[in-house]
Amino acid sequence: MTIHLHEGLEGVWAELHAGGGTIRYRRRGAGATTVLLSSDAPMAGAPEVEQALARAGRVLVPYTRPWPEGPPGRWLETFLEGLGVHDALLVASHGPAVEAALAVAQRAPEMVRGVAILGDPYQAGRLHRAWIETDAGSRTPLLLAGAAATMAEVLPALTHLAGADAPR
To answer: Which of 31, 37, 42, 84 shows a CA-CA span of 20 to 30 A to 158?
Structure first.
């Protein structure tokens, strides 16, 4: 495993070489780790989401286009393990990002403090809190923000979940 750092206009970029592949990622902030699986979805890709999360702790934003092939979330497990990250909040919006976050939360609950799914078109309401039953028999917090949820509603719930003191 090797990590290379690059500084540019968008912040600090790094590359993780592990598991036979390379994952580029941006990082900001310090403290409890949140992995923002950004996408083209408006909410998860919004700059204010990343900024709010960076004030609450460390944010890692892997650049994963196209999404890596293989079992769902395997690349994300390799990424977290390669960086020595445990107990991360995974924030996703739709499609492959959600699939990866849920797969890791279920298979490797020791790596995940919680999962937040933003802009979920299947949620009629605004904010829902639930639990993911893991393969190990534990429960991981799940925050579902429906497509009708506003930033004013989502950011406080998300930054609370991102904090290291969030209930588990």
So the answer is: 84
